[in-house]
Queue: 2 jobs
Job 1
Amino acid sequence: MATKTNKNSNEQSRPRDLLSPQQMREMLTQLYLARYFDVRLIKEKKRGRLRGTLYSSHNQEAILVGSLFGLKGTDWISPIHRDMPAFFLKDMNAGWRNPDRIGMTIEEVCAQVWGKAGSPGRARDNWSHIGSKSKRIIHSTSMLAGTIPAAAGVVYADRLDGGDAVVLTYNGEGSTAQGIFHEAINFAAVHKLPVITIIENNQWAYGTPTHLEYSLEDFARRADGYGIPGLIADGQDVLDVYDKVMMAVEHARAGNGPSIVECKTFRAYGHGDHDDDRAAKYRPKDEVEEGRSRDPIAVMKQQLVALGHMTKEEAGQHLAENKGAGEVTDIDFPEEVVAYLNEGVQFAIKSPLPEAEEGGMWVFKEVE
Amino acid sequence: MASLIDGVSSTKKNYLTAIKEAIAEEMARNPHMIAMGEDIGILGGAFGVTDGLQARFGPERVIDMPISEGAIVGTACGMALNGKTVMVEMQFIDFISCGFDQIVNMTATYHYRTAGEVNIPMVIRGPAGGYGGGALYHSQMNEAWFANSPGLKIVCPSTPSDAKGLMISALRDPNPVLFYEIKELYRKREIEEELNAGDDAIVPLGKARIAREGTDVTLVTYGQNVWHCLEAADNLAKEGYSAEVIDIRTLVPLDEETIIASLQKTNRLVVVNEAPMTCGFAGEILARMTTKAFRYLDAPPARVTRLDTPVPWVKPLELHVLPSVEKITETALQTIRF
């Protein structure tokens, strides 16, 4: 059931055809935002303002923006460590600063990164290990693929209650070797649950390349074993990700069950920032150059220009693409993007640390 | 309790039926309750605890799960995250190890790591314990693994009325609860009891039961060993000693006050449980009482546990490694005569 990437197939019926020029340009802006969040954190960390490990999503932003863009606010997501921007990108089309949107605010996400009391989890677990029941974001642990069963349970409950929510779970290709990955997708397939498993195949599981992780040419073929569709998306192309995820979402919402969407991409840096120097050694230089040669911002600009939604002159502004975190500055990003993030950073800096006594609290919920 | 052994009337019910009633009553009361596990629907459960449940509440609420303990617990956690109360059956409590990560990292920590935003009302229950020839993988008492994982309540009833009352409390608790059912007690006729219905049946978590009053030694235990301790108390009575038997009922939270109050009276402590000794829950009770009730103790507190071995299959081997009435009696006598 795996479908090959073929940009010329189904040209007439692709989900992207319903997107307006403004929506497509918004996608580009969101790519900038995800990138700026990443480089800003790298810079803040280098200034010594942050603790913990930074798991960069640099070069993989198209997967987050493309997969989240068409979701409803009432849908659920289950992001992991490399998906920090997903927390605020969820339901962003309801308005970046709309207090009613069902996604995290930039203030909440930054407060979490800074380890402050303003974090939704009051900084009890680190980095991406936040979530929100009310915002419909499942809280991850460090046990990768370990939240896919919860995702299946969430939509099982939603369906029982008459809802139509789908859930997107994000996973690196490395976590697909976990037994729980199989257990959860098997269960979701048996019950035709609306679980869309996104594989961010960035070619490296920490220090292990894909040929030592699984024996398939295209990971999406793993879906055949569950009797569900396996789609392949160009992870550098936000529109292709949007198409494939929306196909899976429509399939799920129609009651046809789960899908696996393999997004082929490449991890720009080390596994975490502690690993950057070593990653430069354990990964062949030409592989890294090739993997980073199609920056998702550049790919989107080319498409907007080709579609006539953007002039070449406009595309020449804000040249964040093809630059490393140490090379970009704020002028490489749209002002609205920098301003939005500044609001989050300022909030995080001002937010107090949690009280020390909180470390001993909330093990159990009190019985009423 | 002793009067129950005299005869079995038609209204008395066994330990298994007590659990079955509690689950069915709670499912009827709470439309958001779901039951899931291996073979619990069509078959009605390997031991029959969920017999008839799927016919009554439908396959969407009583789910036959693939053999995937991790996914069973994990999906239950997701359902609970999204408003459901979930009863999870482990076909044997031994199999819980296959779902370990989902229990201790995902489920047990949820309330803590979300600063109270999310709580997971879930009961993981299953048949546990030795003395039945179940061998290594159908005889375990592995509750200590979970007592060492903050965020989980742990229950282990020894009588039908406790089984029902504690199960109702567990199913109404806003936290994840591990519920150890003693399979050797499931159909034991000698312990059958009349059962109350609904709220009248409730037994709160965290309150120990004095199974037999006494003055010379306190035997603290739970589960199947309660009955061994009661027998040992009979033996001790023949020797002229009066033993108090405390059934703690729940390990987490532990009713320390009832134990301390007993030690004030008896000044001697023996803890009995069928899990292995090292880092077992008996050791935890000893440690707490040694710290908190030291001045009441007239003899070194002792414990009777399984040897630090797995549970072997054939009877002589199994009985050799598990606590017995004889071992309990002997240890209690040593403690009394110290």
Job 2
Amino acid sequence: MNRIPATFYVNGVRRDLLVDANALLFEVLSDDLGVSGVHKNCDRGDCGVCTVLLDDEPVLSCLMLALEARDRQITTIEGLAKGQKLHPLQRHFVEEGAIQCGYCTPAMILTAKALLNACPHPSAEDVKEGLSGTLCRCTGYNKIITAVLAAAKESE
Amino acid sequence: MLETLNVVGARMPLPEAYEKATGRATYCSTMRLPGMLVGKVLRSPHPHARVAKVDYSKAESLPGVAAVVSGQDVKSKVYTKNVMTYQLPGGEIQDMTLFGDRVRYKGDEVAAVAAVDEPTARRALSLIEVEYEVLPAVFTVDDAIAEDAPVIHDFAPDNTPVSAVPTFCYGDAAKAFEESAVVAGGWYTTSKQIQAGMESAACVADYQHGKLTVWSQSQLPHMAKRMLAHVLDLPEADVRVIQPYAGAGFGAGCDLNAEPIAAVLAMKAGAPVQVWYSRDEDFNNRLTREHVAKVHMRVGLAADGTPKALEAHYWGDAGSYMCKTASGCGVALASNITPYEWEAMDQKLSATYTNHVGGGAMRGFGGMQSSFVRETIVDEAIAQLGMDPIEWRMKHHRNVGGLGWFPSARITSCALEECLTIGAERIGWKEKWNKPQSGTKRRGVGVACMAWLSGAQPMLLEHSNATLKFNADGSATLLVSPGRVGQGVEGALAQIAAEVLTIPYERINVIAGDTDITGFDIGTHASRGVYCIGKAVLAAATEAKEQFLQRAAEKLGLSNDTLVLEDGVISSTADQNCFVTLEEIALGLIYGFEHDCNQIVAHATVEPEDFAPPWQAGFAEVEVDIETGVVEVVKWITVHDIGRAINPSTVEGQLEGATCQGMGFALFEDPVISLSDGYMLTDGFDKYKIMSSVDLPDHEAILVEMGDPSGPFGAKSVGEAGLFLQAPAIANAIYDAVGIRLRDLPMTPERVLAAIQAKEAGV
């Protein structure tokens, strides 16, 4: 396999790697860079659990070639907290009880972050629409929606 | 009203939520151990065959392959992935052999490889040569019980090892039916729902110096350890099961997945091995919901509504291995007992083998199939008498002291009437029920009720242990062993301990998830966590408190009974200035210089006697499009008799999440099994729909807290309770809207429309 030199900016840190031409972004993040907060489930774009942000836009890391993310800013869940200080979305997810098994949580929080960038004052319907690409089997979504609305309110 | 407490009843954030929110939480699928290999399973392409020969020499010589295993590498031990077999004195049917010489569904395990990466592992699988002698196969119960059906397991020549076994019968049902004014009943079918947590089945195994460590998603780690020791022929002392967080359980963690295979690979390779199913592999090979394929039920009511008789036959489609199919039917029958005062009950169960993936357990085990059938038939009979379904339920439910889910169990508390009253008000029952509808979109409301359990005692062994050990600063470590499936029970257990010890929640550090560290526990199933493990924690904390009081009495020169513990301070009831803090006592017992060091460690074992049923009323308002058959749920309300909510936020979360799963079971979650090879055609979320945020109806969960005398601080269970009533209440609401009775789940638009058309045609 031809390995190609590539530079990624993961949570603001430059990483220079040799990657397989057919390596997926998920594989590079999780296997080469040891990013444990990126999860994977369906491998075909149904569940959204592998979502990371690429230049602040949500992308499915299990369906994207790593080389497509070359020279771009990748944000994973590890990039949100500042030391021990949680991002408001993380804090509200914790406080509202919006996390159960937690497997979808990184994707949910990152998707919510992109949503709030695009739409800082969302309605509950906006949040439902904005998060609809990520499945959660545990929570029934109510507390997730409440947490996102609370985080939006806080930034007002 | 219950008295207000300090920590119990507060909406505390879960410690584990911080790890999960920051991406720091470890799951079996995110583990990356040094030198870890990728394990892959070779699966049968045939639904039924003899495995004549396996030759893996070519696969073994592929560069990058560390180990290949098949039947020749393991001792031929009969076992079951259903580790709950240890909870019954006689056990449940064990009918599996690891890499045996017979495969019984398309996907059955034949061999496995461990290699440096996934592409190499996949190439190695393709190099394994297997000779099969293909056998005829059957995919439905009706085909499997036909006279000339192929025999799937030799010990069950009619494929039905459990055949019409009478279960939990009492009274003279025939006479009670004769005395009934109305009798309603018929055949029902229910779905083989998929647990569908967001993490596929995954595990890691490592074997070093004669000791096996398995990282597992098991909800029942101590029994998983015992079964692994059995199937691998190792001493139990040499097996350790560690549970990282699991990407949900919902019963999927009640059975082993690839743990035995990962272990055999790790032992042969001398390196850690991870087996992580792809999503379609998970759909096709992870044991599904206990599949009660068909149910026949009749109920009889007297002219004044008195419940006379309930007669039922639950028939399970076990698939290729029995696992929990028969016990699922048994729990369905047991859970039919609690809700109403039948004069007589006559129930039986059967379970039949077929050639598709077996039935394990899913949240609402057996209770889904009892609630849907019973609550819709009862609704039908009530309607024939022209009575209000809420009033009938108010009048005829069982009550405290009455028969429980299992013949020797008695009801310890019941707040069903409060649940019904609150829900009826909230949904607007009086204004909306039984109102004539016209137009193409018709609205209706429906209600259903249930009583569940808080642990499966006394039918099953429900043994729990809890240990508290105190640090020098008066904080404590709490050792317990629930499943770690996101249900939030560890936080609730910390709240119970903190309440007893009058110290802050944050001062209890819960350690779980390692069979080498924690005491024995059955684990998480049957909605038992807060009740059963909570009782052990309550007992351990009470014992610790006694030890502190004893020490304080010695230190203060007073007797125990003149002391009181408040806010972490033990003081004399006579003189408030005479006191000592828990911290001072704990410090002195660890870093004391009076030659009396004795760290406070308190341990408790419990086997609860009562089953403490939580009661519940569910209310649905629906809109049925009579031109398309589409049912829209306009509003859903769960009113749950929790006894006491240790953490109301967690309880609501359990109920809200379950609502979505219950809606799926009711309306659209529909595993489709091929009738040509038994393969599950719905093998991904593109084909097997689960609820997303935009599909969400307006739904809410309301808690009723009146306490249960047997529960820790009055608590009863919630884990499974939230998903029983969507199917029956929606079915009853559809009847209220358009006058049709549906007997098959899920209630898809096709089925609804067909029933509407049949009604219009007068069929």
